[in-house]
Each structure stands twice: as structure tokens, then as C-alpha cells.
Write a structure and sequence with these properties.
The protein is an alpha/beta fold and 190 residues long. It has one domain: Vaccinia Virus protein VP39 (Rossmann fold, 3-Layer(aba) Sandwich). Helices cover 38% and strands 19% of the residues. Strand 1, helix 3 and strand 2 form a beta-alpha-beta unit.
């Protein structure tokens, strides 16, 4: 009888592993994302981190991190710590794998969460590539949650009447294409 139970359990383990793998591959966000997934270009990643003047002592949060490229670049190129937040579990799994491949998993972490509910108060730099209405909805939380001196950089979209301290253009500004990006920088004030 014991042998039969042991054999039944040993047949059950591969079935459970297969089911868990299938569930992970079919993972769905708890709600629809606020923005479509559009990866930030490598040139824009570099320019955003330079505009924010990222240093080794910074904690860079990317809200809507997608495949994790911004926090991975902050860790790899500047030695900064980073946290990526995205509501899509597929993107989070991809970001974790990308961090492993880049050898920076000791400097970054990725969190499946709704950016409107996430805790990012420890950030010294926040990066965004969202949409205008999402930026405006997020703006009060940024201003209330972040410490004075924290830098906020947005790719392509501003924050309404919150005037940026600096702007930069990446790509060919003469071409109004997805290859051209305006970047905006704000600093949280007391």
C-alpha cells in the first residue's frame, strides 16, 4: 500500500510542475494596465538617467517598468539600486530574467503592483514612460510620497501645469516620430 501511494505521489509531482509552469506562462495582470507596453529606446534610457544625474547612491524606481531596462541600466552603468514596478506579471518575469542576464540582480528588484498603490517613498529618482492622463493622476502621489530632492523624469509626456526644470530631446527633433523623445525633469520641493 505504501509503495502504491509513493508511486502515485511521484506521478503527481510532474503534473503539478506542469500546471504551475502553465499558470505562470498564462499569468494575467489583476487589472488592465493603464498604458500599453512600449519599450523605451536605449538612447532614451541613457538620456533619462543622465538627465536625472543618477549616482551610485541613488534608488531608481521605474513606474511601469516593462522589461526592466531602465533600472537595469541604472544598476549596470551607474551602480545605483533600482526597483521596477509593473502590473503585468509577464513583464515582471521578463525584467527579472533580464536582470539575471545583466548580472545586476543584487542591485535591482521587480515588484508586480499597481503603480497607484505601490510604495515608492524611498526613491531618489523616479522614471516614467506613461501617458498624459496617467502622469496627471499620479502627480499628487509623487508630490506627497517622495522626499524633497527626489528627481522625477518622464519620457515624452509632461505633467500639465507642473513646469519641468529641464527638458531634453533624444533622437531627431525635426522628425515627429516615435524615435524622437522629449524628456522632462522635475525635482520634488518641500
Amino acid at each position: 500500500m505504501r509503495l502504491e501511494k509513493a508511486m502515485a505521489r511521484s506521478r503527481l509531482i510532474p503534473v503539478l510542475l506542469l500546471a504551475a509552469t502553465a499558470a505562470a506562462q498564462n499569468a494575467q495582470p489583476r487589472r488592465d494596465p493603464d498604458v500599453p507596453y512600449v519599450p523605451t529606446t536605449e538612447a532614451a534610457v541613457t538620456a533619462m538617467l543622465k538627465l536625472a544625474d543618477v549616482k551610485k547612491t541613488d534608488i531608481v524606481y521605474d513606474l511601469g517598468c516593462g522589461d526592466g531596462r531602465i533600472v537595469i541600466a541604472a544598476a549596470k552603468n551607474f551602480g545605483a539600486h533600482g526597483v521596477g514596478i509593473d502590473i503585468n506579471p509577464v513583464r515582471i518575469a521578463e525584467a527579472k530574467e533580464n536582470a539575471r542576464k545583466a548580472g545586476v540582480e543584487n542591485l535591482v528588484r521587480f515588484e508586480e503592483n499597481d503603480l497607484f498603490q505601490a510604495d515608492f517613498h524611498e526613491a531618489t529618482v523616479v522614471t516614467l514612460f506613461l501617458l498624459p492622463n496617467v502622469n496627471l493622476k499620479l502627480r499628487p502621489k509623487l508630490q506627497q510620497s517622495l522626499k524633497p530632492g527626489t528627481r522625477v523624469v518622464s519620457n515624452t509626456f509632461d505633467m500639465g501645469d507642473w513646469k519641468p526644470e529641464k527638458q531634453a530631446t533624444v533622437g531627431d527633433a525635426a522628425e515627429a516620430t516615435y524615435l524622437s523623445h522629449t524628456l522632462y525633469l522635475w525635482t520634488i520641493r518641500p
